[in-house]
Amino acid sequence: YVELRSDTFTLPTPAMLEAAASAPLGDDVYGEDPTVARLERLAAGLLGKDAACLMPSGTMANLAAVLAHCPRGGKAVVGRESDLYVYEAGGASVCGGVVYEPLPNQPDGTILLSDLEEALTVDRADPQFAVPALVALESPQNRCGGVPVGPAYLAEAAGLARRHGAALHLDGARLFNAATALGVTPAELAAPADTVQICLSKGLCAPIGSLLVGEAGAIGRARRIRKLLGGGMRQAGVIAACGILALTEMTGRLAEDHENAARLARGLSGLPGLELDPGPPATNMVFFRVRDPRHTTRSFIDAARERGVRMEELGHGRIRAVTHAGVTTTDIDHTVNVLRALLTPPVPTPGGGR
Amino acid sequence: YVELRSDTFTLPTPAMLEAAASAPLGDDVYGEDPTVARLERLAAGLLGKDAACLMPSGTMANLAAVLAHCPRGGKAVVGRESDLYVYEAGGASVCGGVVYEPLPNQPDGTILLSDLEEALTVDRADPQFAVPALVALESPQNRCGGVPVGPAYLAEAAGLARRHGAALHLDGARLFNAATALGVTPAELAAPADTVQICLSKGLCAPIGSLLVGEAGAIGRARRIRKLLGGGMRQAGVIAACGILALTEMTGRLAEDHENAARLARGLSGLPGLELDPGPPATNMVFFRVRDPRHTTRSFIDAARERGVRMEELGHGRIRAVTHAGVTTTDIDHTVNVLRALLTPPVPTPGGGR
Amino acid sequence: YVELRSDTFTLPTPAMLEAAASAPLGDDVYGEDPTVARLERLAAGLLGKDAACLMPSGTMANLAAVLAHCPRGGKAVVGRESDLYVYEAGGASVCGGVVYEPLPNQPDGTILLSDLEEALTVDRADPQFAVPALVALESPQNRCGGVPVGPAYLAEAAGLARRHGAALHLDGARLFNAATALGVTPAELAAPADTVQICLSKGLCAPIGSLLVGEAGAIGRARRIRKLLGGGMRQAGVIAACGILALTEMTGRLAEDHENAARLARGLSGLPGLELDPGPPATNMVFFRVRDPRHTTRSFIDAARERGVRMEELGHGRIRAVTHAGVTTTDIDHTVNVLRALLTPPVPTPGGGR
Amino acid sequence: YVELRSDTFTLPTPAMLEAAASAPLGDDVYGEDPTVARLERLAAGLLGKDAACLMPSGTMANLAAVLAHCPRGGKAVVGRESDLYVYEAGGASVCGGVVYEPLPNQPDGTILLSDLEEALTVDRADPQFAVPALVALESPQNRCGGVPVGPAYLAEAAGLARRHGAALHLDGARLFNAATALGVTPAELAAPADTVQICLSKGLCAPIGSLLVGEAGAIGRARRIRKLLGGGMRQAGVIAACGILALTEMTGRLAEDHENAARLARGLSGLPGLELDPGPPATNMVFFRVRDPRHTTRSFIDAARERGVRMEELGHGRIRAVTHAGVTTTDIDHTVNVLRALLTPPVPTPGGGR
Ligand SMILES: [Ca+2]
Ligand SMILES: [Ca+2]
Ligand SMILES: [Ca+2]
Ligand SMILES: [Ca+2]
Ligand SMILES: [Ca+2]
Ligand SMILES: [Ca+2]
After folding, report:
1. Model confidence over D25-48: pLDDT tens digits?
2. What SS3 state is found at B166?
3. Residue A57 needs a FRET pair 20 to 30 A away by CA distance; which of A39, A252, B61, C171 works?
């Protein structure tokens, strides 16, 4: 089958598994795993930051970041369509007494600076207001179509946040995809943010782990929070070894995923009853809607799955197909054929038979 | 001076103070204050509900309601412009690990049912989602202009909420104003909701206190939460005695406040450089903007204050004037004169000197 | 009947009710109630502190204090027998993510300095430990028999706390009773603490309210927390007026309550099957156990209640009788007679019939 | 060097690393990693429970258990010396609004049933009390000397808990050590508990991971909480593969660690100035104090470390040495020699040289 539900389905490479088996190990809860230390230094260097901290998931890396920046009762200004707000169970309210303020994401993944400005402008002396301590942005912005949000916007948002006493966190779960699409370095993209989350187990193919990268103070606080949340892992070098290869060997191949996504989008754009939404992909995700009286979103997904093509609904009525290392050009062409067959022959237009 | 900043500035009536001084008292933390019990029964009866619980403030009544309905990690769907979300410090996230999901308020104070439906539709088995347990609405809706939200809409929203396993809380801080404006009974307005908050110290003139009114189970849970938050008060009959008069003697006079608000709006609508926003009032609040090159919002408020008229900014660039028992028709006319003077003579239009 | 369950059952004096009816009022949520301001300045002055903040209850005053001193994840070191830990629903864990560390109270109400030292000594750099940010003590210590804890011990504990970076909060719900018993001023007792809670509605007879008093920074933070918890009250001058008389007119009479408690203890100490525990009272509470085969603790309390004497179990198997302004010397003598009758004739000792 | 600081320092076996490299993998956040599923079924079967859930750490497994059993504001009754209370940063108060009630641990690791009974006996209708929802016990009990707590006691405690409406969680981080020492099966030890935490990365040598095992409802709730905390891991089969070998191949060898601990204790018991506390080990930990004027606890640990023997202070003034797969009998004898040398020649007794 062709697995297009998510790039989280990537599997570790043979080189990763070999590295895992031979990595020097220690107890990372005591700070003594040399492979973890090496990965953390590597990530910090790549992103041009002081420090990094390995986490079992991107959810925890984001959660620890929000808690590191926001005191109890502080407010985190987030995108209405951000993964951090939509898919992470509201963890910062639960674990940290943090109030989310979701603002609309624009089609390009950004939040209007005027919206940010309004949300950040509160009378801090007035106890009726939760005080914003953080702006969290996402690049690429998954639910806006995997659209990369670039360094110029991030720098403006960061400046605005700082003028209001707030920090900027960047959910860069797919930061290397964004950097690839934008033709900038990861460090350029990370530069405006105080902390950045990067995921090792999506396009980069490591089996487990995300990193929180940023300035030393925030990472120190996040490391303490990691322990409290239960994210301290013992001989974590076994997964860090894979992560080192993820960062050193796997970022170059993301362009291929983007090409495959573009190829898929081209193939789908001609199909009757299928509509790209929001349009051609900039990174590794194709979103579309099916408008065909023979199908609901769910029945279409199920029919594709029976024919060996796995995709998922994401948002209300939109289907997402994500390319990654486990998806070849041949898989893409096969997918187009399968979906075309589900939509062909086209539903005759009324009176069309005459 | 004329106090138009809020109807919270109302003072207790002489009858209230006399009632406070002669009320039978007991220790309400032991459930033994007869005057509190009488007030709670009265409120429940007026709103057609099982039970009521006296709280030191509307903020606590709302907070206890949200916590009574939402378990840790549950989601409260609220209006983007609701007092509960904007002005209550995010208490439910802090004290209860509840996630707010703010949705846009329409100009009529409602939330689109389609927006509610989308927010309530989550896969409850999927742990990445916070599960909605409550919809909270407000009537009248302060930040939308004090617009009353009526029972038909509330019933539709309640039905929708219940179909998705969520409860409906109504922030009726000014419920009697809404009922007056709509020509319905408070019970008709309260009927669709599981719990309702009513405030005694706004238009109804009691010095302290709000009530949470609703079905017995929710009120029982809220009463427990009240103790935890520190809202249990000892000889609370001294304030409950005022509250009894608030509910029995003061609701009839709210129509007068509405007439005064309408009179103020009429007086202001003709002024140059002053624009009602959103238009004529339905209850006791007039909102407007000043568009005059001689004034900022702040300088206009300050200038009015120097001339004995107190108003406040509410929202970004809007000024609110609230009528209440301490504001007479003469006060209204004086206010119009003062504001007219600040805006007169009108700024000459370019070329107007010819 | 004679009400000995608690001194919370005190009723406001006629002078208080008169003061409530004539006090200048304002909206205290806007900081404009002159009577509240006067009460807060008075309390701060009496205790020799910077500032004070009126709260609807002692529970909220304690809760706001703990949250003002402890960040999320901080630890509050408290007495195992403290009201704050036992009777306040764990509010600081719920509302503030604060971890309680209860330590044994000694019979004199103190916590051993060696126990405090051990609890405060943690490696702050090690994320596995919650870091102590507060020591909370109580004087008089209710569950240890209403025993006053004196300024010398409090100063030692405060010094210890500060050397470990923690603050000292004093739950002085009955601070004036402690000061009276010890022959020191309230300010002397309050001096070692960063914040002190005093209750107006116990022996001092005000109907509602407690004050948190302390250094300006902590009170400022507590004031913000009060709003979040829903403790901001509008025309709170009606209760503050009573509180002013509580602090100026009522503290002198507490000695009389102590004499009545001593008189009750003397009367009870001779009764068969009744044992004072822990012994004669230092303030206004008498604790005892009943050891008589005809009674359980509960049946004894119920029998006394039927005969017009109200007391309550406090702790496991101990009965508490509290004296206050509503209890006269005649009431005390009546109480002794009633309880004697319940225990007489004494149960014959085996073989005693010969 | 000889690593005796903790059995967490164990390294994965070659067989584990080979298994990790060849295990079938999937995305466990989607529930599709077959190796994780196999490990979870294996653990549930071994402990005679319905279900299991893989966690990145024992801290998270314990935290998720406490949150699965305790609602917001519920109380968790725990051992004063339990790892869950002492070393896990108070996570349940922070993330779940749960109140800890620590009770004294007896030298045999248990909590007195009378203490449990008193803690569990609260008036649930009275809102001033946090209501106990959980008793958490630990076997073996680390800070009491690694003493195994047996099934008979656990069954009594479980019965008591249930009679009061509370669940029983067993922190069995070293459950297989306890079972080995007691000569019972893991399932016999786990039987009384609703949920059990077992650690894969201590004596069992897996690099990462703990399991929460128990009845289906609680595990379902814990799985949801795991996502919120950020404990969902993608291709977690790489560590689950090691865990399968931990459970199938490594439990038999724990007896060897216990023998080595006994050998170490025998060797140390004869040394001057060294005192076993609490005495000979039942499992794999030796605790002792040094009473020698030439050493503080810290200087002794440092001196041993310089000579290649690593141990750590645990508790105030006690040193812990833990045996595990990385420690041979030769290592033990070397350790005894090194420590003997640090304490020899004995400090001359006064006048002893004459
Ligand atoms: Ca993957
Ligand atoms: Ca008022
Ligand atoms: Ca007037
Ligand atoms: Ca009283
Ligand atoms: Ca290990
Ligand atoms: Ca070795």
Report:
1. 999 999 999 999 999 999 999 999
2. coil
3. A252
D239 and D320 both lie in a single domain: no
Q: Which residue in chain C is spatially nearest to A128 when comparing CA positions?
A: C227
- Same-domain status, A245 and A313: no
Query: Has residue D348 been placed in a domain?
Result: no
D343 vs D298: CA distance, rounded Å: 14
Residues B209 and B245 in one domain: yes
C6 and C29 both lie in a single domain: yes
Give the integer Cα–Cα distance in Å for C116 and C348. Answer: 48
D204 and D87 share a domain? yes
Closest CB to A87: pick one of B73, B86, B128: B128
Selected residue of C55, C67, C72, C131 to mutate for chain A interface (largest A Cβ count, 10 A)? C72
Find tokens 């209006």 and name the residue: B79
Contact A23, A237 (CB under 8 A): yes
Contacts of C227 in chain A (CB under 8 A): 127-128
How much distance in Å is there from the Cα of A353 to the middle of ligand 2? 75
Span from the CA of B263 to the centroid of ligand 3 (angstroms):
16
Q: Which of C86, C93, C121, C318 is best to mutate for the D interface (most D CBs within 10 A)?
A: C93
Q: Answer yes or no: are the C-beta atoms of D85 and D78 closer than 8 Å.
A: yes
D256-283 pLDDT, tens per residue? 999 999 999 999 998 999 999 999 999 9
CB-CB under 8 Å, B121 with A87: no
Q: Is residue D327 part of a domain?
A: yes
Which residue from B90, B121, B127 is facing A89, i.e. has the nearest CB? B127
Interchain proximity A121–B87, CB inside 8 Å: no
Domain-terminating residue out of D248, D268, D302: D248
DSSP per position, B10-31 = ----HHHHHHHHH-----GGGT
Task: Count the helix, strand and coil residues of chain B and give each as a percent rounded to the nearest 5.
Answer: 45, 15, 40
**Phi/psi class of residue A222: alpha, beta or left (left: φ > 0; alpha: ψ in -120 to 50)?**
alpha
Q: How far is the CA of B205 from the centre of ligand 2 (A)?
A: 5
C257 and C237 within one domain: no
Please tell me the distance from the alpha carbon of residue B353 to that of residue A241, in angstroms, as a whole number. Answer: 80
Task: Please measure the distance between the N-terminal and C-terminal CA atoms of chain D and give it in whole angstroms.
Answer: 40
Query: Over the stretch B247-274, which tens digit does the pLDDT of each residue have?
Result: 999 999 999 999 999 999 999 998 999 9
Q: Tell me whether residue C351 is in a domain.
A: no
In a domain, B354, yes or no: no
**CATH number of the structural domain spanning residue D90:** 3.40.640.10
List the CATH number of the domain containing D295. Answer: 3.90.1150.10
Give the number of C-alpha atoms closer than 13 A to the C-alpha of residue B218, restricted to the C-beta side: 29
CA D239 to ligand 5 center in whole angstroms: 12
Is C72–A97 a contact, with Cβ atoms under 8 angstroms apart?
yes
Q: Are residues D81 and D216 in the same domain?
A: yes
CB contact under 8 A, B130 and A100: no
* Tally of helices (H runs) and strands (E runs) in chain A: 14, 13
Residue D280 burial by CB count (10 A; 0-12/13-18/19+): exposed, middle or buried? middle
Measured from the alpha carbon of residue B3, the closest ligand is 3
Distance CA B323, CA B254 (A): 9
C62 and C113, same domain (yes or no): yes
A194 conformational bin, left if phi > 0, alpha if psi -120 to 50, beta if neither: alpha
DSSP letter at D77 equals: E
pLDDT in tens, C57-75: 999 999 999 999 999 999 9
Which residue, D248, D282, D305, sits at the end of a domain?
D248
Both tokens of A77, joined, read 């200004």
This complex has an ipTM of 0.97
Q: How many domains does chain A have?
A: 2
Q: What share of chain D is helix, strand, coil (3-state, %, to 5)?
A: 45, 15, 40
- Which domain covers residue C270, as residue numbers? 253-343
